[in-house]
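CO-FOLDING WORKSHEET

Operator: S.A.
Ligand of interest: zinc ion
Run index: 322
Mode: holo prediction, single chain
Checklist:
[x] sequence pasted
[x] SMILES validated
[ ] output reviewed
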Amino acid sequence: MTVPTALPPYAEGLHRLGAVTSTYLQPDGGFGLSNAGVVARGDDTLLVDTFFDLAHTRRLLDAIGRPVRRCVNTHDNGDHCWGNQLLAQEGAELIGHRHCAEDMTKISPAVLGALLRMPPDTVLGRYFAGAGDRFDFDGIEVTPPTTVFDDELTLDVEGVAVHLVHVGPAHTRSDVIAHVPADGVVFCGDILFRLCTPLGWEGDTDTWIAALELIATLDAGTLVPGHGPVCTPAAALEMRDYFEYVRAEARSAYERGVTLADAAASIDPGPYAAWAESERVVSIVARNYREFGAGDGVDPVTMLTWMAQRWEADSHPRDGAD
Ligand SMILES: [Zn+2]
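OUTPUT RECEIVED:
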């Protein structure tokens, strides 16, 4: 295994990971602040993910400072692909899982932008106030991959192999990881969140756990999460442990007859409470209940509303009971 001598600091910008790999990090990794990967050799450059809007993606491309020939999207969430059009305009090939191409246009930047700019007298407005100010969704033309695959695809970057593996449905239907054995690096997309609570959309807990265990067993000492600082395989196993902890808590609540709404509002992330965005536990509890057979889960807006309510309750606890 290629063991990293030192992990890069968690600072905004491009950081070298090995002979051919780099990552662009966007602290603090909160809503919309994702990481990207770069594999470059000779005149060939492969990018792993673009960013949430055009301005953030231009910063990424300026830092790379050389033409990008191909770009892989790890999944279809906007914070990993809504800068794609800047690459398509330059003639770059866009690559992703078949579901990534199918699902990318299901949420429009205008609709999400309106959600992020809800008035401050709504709980979603207060929750998303920071993100609504940070990103500009004007002018985004969602541009899905045109080269798609189902299970695996290996790319060649001037003799360097990049293995793309579909590991979903876990965070979304289209989850893909990019493994670069030459440098012992895995770009994990949102299969891995580091020191930040995972947010789940389509997928199931067992598939997500299997994906994390796969990442931990690859011959790779350096993991780039979709959000958060660069880390080692221990981080993938720690996130697996988070899922198992929350599932046990959710199981206990379910068997005591606690409703999903009440469980989502109250289940304590225990040893993981210090991870950022702890209110996202709501999304994990909702999928746990669905997996226990308690209904079909909840729609995304309801889930975001419950998360916002939990965030507000956690951030601004009321003094005593009234
Ligand atoms: Zn993300």
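REVIEW:
The mean pLDDT is 94.
The CA atoms of residues 87 and 108 lie 19 Å apart.
[x] output reviewed
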